[in-house]
Write a structure and sequence with these properties.
The chain is an alpha/beta fold. The chain is built from ten helices and six strands, in the order E-H-H-H-H-H-E-H-E-H-E-H-E-H-E-H. Helix 1 crosses helix 4. The longest helix has 18 residues.
């Protein structure tokens, strides 16, 4: 293993959830009286905490409208979970392979809420895969590096022995802020050219490619 600690983003990196996030956010904006949101605008904010995402998508929104949008997004997303989402190809086998290394620690750093992450952990049976996690509502949202700082401290791992894996510039810039190695997953939300601006340590278009790189 190249690293003692591997930290994963969730949406767009492990789970194929972009389409659902976009649909639920668009419905929530209509419910809140904001109007139509372009799909591209919603995709752009995936990975941020919900308050930060709303502020970025809806400049000038009132606090009352923002709270209404947040509530309706949660409503639509929970309702949609009646149909489980899928992990990207290779994720389940790849994480299982990493867990064969007893010295390795695996973690999640996500823009989801703690309630949302714990719910998907339970529904997908994936909670036991990871040794720790951080969500945007219990610390700073990406791209602030606080999530990573807390995970490094929890495991006592120096930044040189950790890597962040993500599909958005928010993931990569969070790691870049600490001079942490970072992997760009190009099958997710942000375009490869956008990810390249964050100078990733490694870039791949498949989860299997990530695992091969981490273990060789």
């Amino acid at each position: 293993m190249r690293y003692r600690l591997v930290i994963f983003d969730w949406d767009g990196t492990l789970m194929d959830s972009e389409a659902r996030i976009v649909a639920c956010m668009q419905a929530a904006a209509r419910d809140a009286g904001w109007g139509e949101l372009r799909g591209e605008a919603v995709s752009d904010i995936i990975g941020l905490g919900l308050p930060e995402a709303i502020a970025r998508m809806c400049p000038g929104i009132t606090a009352e409208q923002a709270e209404r949008l947040r509530e309706r997004y949660a409503h639509h997303f929970v309702a949609a979970e009646a149909e489980p989402l899928s992990f990207f190809p290779g994720v389940e086998a790849g994480v299982a392979r990493l867990r064969e290394y007893p010295e390795a620690r695996l973690a999640v750093a996500t823009g989801k809420s703690r309630r949302g992450l714990d719910r998907v952990f339970a529904e997908s049976g994936s909670g036991a895969w990871f040794h720790a996690s951080r969500t945007a509502d219990e610390t700073h949202s990406k791209p602030h590096p606080r999530m990573l700082e807390e995970l490094l401290a929890e495991f006592g791992v120096p930044v040189e022995e950790a890597v962040m894996v993500g599909d958005t510039e928010y993931d990569l810039e969070m790691a870049r802020g600490l001079s942490m190695d970072r992997v760009a997953m190009t099958y997710g939300v942000h375009a490869p050219q956008r990810l390249a601006a964050s100078q990733p340590t490694f870039t791949t278009d498949s989860f299997a490619g990530l695992i091969d790189w981490l273990t060789h």
